[in-house]
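Thread: "does anyone have the structure for this chain?"

Original post by V.I.:
We have the sequence but no experimental structure in hand. Need at least a predicted one for the grant figures.
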Amino acid sequence: MSSLSLAVTVPAFIPSPSQGVWHVLGVPIRAYALCILAGIFVGYWLGRRRWVARGGSAPVLADIMFWAIPFGLVGARIYHVITDAELYFGEGKHPIDALKIWHGGLGIWGAVAFGALGAWIACRRAKVPFLAVADAMAPGIALAQVFGRFGNYFNQELFGRPTTKPWGLEISTEHRPAGYADFATFHPTFLYEAVWNLGVVALLLLVDRRYKLGHGRAFFLYVAAYTAGRAWIETMRIDTVNHIFGLRLNVWTAIILFVVGVVAFVVSARKRPGQEDISTGPATGPAADEKPAEPQGEDSAQDSDDSSQDGEDADEKVEAGTTNGAAKADPPDGSSD
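Reply from O.Q.:
Generated one for you, tokens below.
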């Protein structure tokens, strides 16, 4: 009797997508751009829910994002071009390539910095506390980064050192950097960072639910948590970048921002505990000026007895009448017409 065995073929690596651009009616649809747009959408969705839950105005937040998002995209590209200028300027380079954002190259540091600048300008115009907006949007920023990192996956860029682990990322020959042509699979640092950012989202939501973070503390916690992961993930990457004292530029940036985030969090917690009030409240008008009803008690009961007595006196006057027949009873509240 022969025995039959089933052989299940399991890939020993993560395959890279066969393409990252699709043409629809002659128009190129790029996966990188779709990932960025998806990140913006879900990030705004989460931030909007948090903002409204705190009593903020959804239209006001939409106006703020109208400033923050373009500023962030421009800032992300500016940071990348400045820190990797050798890719666009110099002998044999084409400066016009600096404008080709669809080829990849967005620095999260520039995105957050310039996006914050745009949001700050909009908050000043709307007379809304900027740090409250930053707190509401912090988990959304981390969630947007999760989607954005998959744009690197479709572009086959920003991967790590070679590895033979089952989760190694297959990279096409044309995308492998110089000196790595003989290696086929690499650490999927895009995936590491995406998973880390999901953890940052969960951390912010849980801590904020427990402690009601305010005055920028949710945002500062995001900065510290994200940079803590980015620092070690960055050391795994092999793409060509500038180094300072033996460390990649982005590692130094992550370390510095981590320290800034922690210090800002501690200072904010000590000097401005609690949350700021951002509720819009009821619409202004005559109804808003009315005084609240006084509580019922002994004084109210006494006032009621006095009013009843006044009513009886008024009835007696009406029955008695006056000499000219034109006299009128006083109203119950004691005022005269």
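V.I.: this helps a lot. The longest strand covers residues 21-24.
O.Q.: and The CA atoms of residues 285 and 291 lie 13 Å apart.
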